[in-house]
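Quick one: structure tokens for this chain, please?
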Amino acid sequence: MKKWFNKGVKLYLKNRYARIESIRNNPIEVQQKVLLSLLSRASKTEYGKQFHFDKIKTAEEFANTLPLTDYEDHKADIYKMMDGAKNVLWPGKIEWFAKSSGTTSDRSKYIPVSDDFLYKNNVASSWDTMAITYNEDPESQIFWKKSLIMGGSLSKWKHNDKINVGDISAILLHRMPAVGRPFYSPDFKTAIIDDWEEKIQLMSDLCINEDIVMFGGVPTWTIVLFKRILEKTGAKNMQEVWPNVKYYMHGGVGFDPYIDQFKDFFPKPGFKYFEIYNASEGYFAVQDRKDEKGMLLLLNNDIYYEFITMEELTNEHPKTTPLSDVEIDTNYAIVVSSSAGLWRYMPGDTVSFTSKNPYRIKVSGRTKHFINVFGEEVMVGNTDKALAETLKALPAIVSEYTVAPIFMNQHKKGGHLWMIEFEKEPDNLSAFEILLDDNLKKINSDYAAKRFKDMALSRLQIQLVPKGTFHKWMASKGKIGGQNKVPRLFNSRKYVDELQGFIGKN
């Protein structure tokens, strides 16, 4: 029966692929229609009335009328919606919110997931991804055999039990149509368990005997699961466990640090990696050519895009670049407006275009310093606050610090290295290290999830830096003065390797 269902889906996806072609052939027209549709549907909301959506007819008028926003700008309206208000940022009452790592003032932020946004963005983009996959490989068996899901958690909001909050992956799983459920493993109850140790244990038991052909998820937890399965089975690699597995859908964090490990797990030729760009704020893009690193920007899925150059971003009132005017190999901060009720919203990601015909992008970083190697989304505000809280309890004086990832491999877990220069060291460095890690977990929910029982990330490590080193290091680079600041966080080891080399020489 499933074999025939797969054939039916294959025919549907062949027809759906025409949608992908329309994105490639008429990108600007498609985006203009999306913008006008969003404005029309939201014209009677509080936000739509405030900015006279009914009078906006062009992209230029839109950019000149609405301000650029971030989470802090929308936060009051979002909490009003979570308290039960309707027609605030998007029509109707919204009861689902995607939870992700917060800003400097919030442990978590909550992105509205309206029904329109769920189905016209997340679900539509998922179908587009399947259409691309089947076009690339017509012999795909995704709707015949099983796909593995590494879902997040889902819970009721503590202030209103009618509101559901959780990872966007968990929301998608919970609301997936019944027709799709037989093709996924594990069962959905297991997939959204909050306790990751229990989830990994149950998943490793349930998935060993499944005929998995595709899997997705953040590499960190996927690796933990694979190691557990190999321990249980005694297999040398995952292709011995799942002989028909062919695809890994990855995104959200840089994949380069993990590729060698995945080649160990899947050594046989023919295994395919597809990159997707799926954030709490939207499913933006998908790799549409297996040999192309760029991802096709999905322009017809209820999101309107604008872009800001890095130079313009430093201005008090930055101007956006429309899609028609972007340039290849230029870094842009991405700006989105969508049926989630986010208007000219900056998620904080930067992208660069690898192609304009069609429009393909790659994620180039964040608008601010960060570490997101393992999906932890640690920002400078998080580390500054964690350090400040630790210094209150264990008095010391910090001159400078920088933080970088410790990449995981087959023999050790990942983590964070803090290189700290103390003017006055704490009495007990080990206790300081433990408390700093605990405080960072309290401040950043994504870091706390990755640190849960040391399963994915080990506790952070502190390396003492001799007094005066940061100043001398910056001086050696010609970076002295008020505008030159020590890089607090970086998503690679570039700066810590430089600094360690400098210390070794001096």
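The mean pLDDT is 90.
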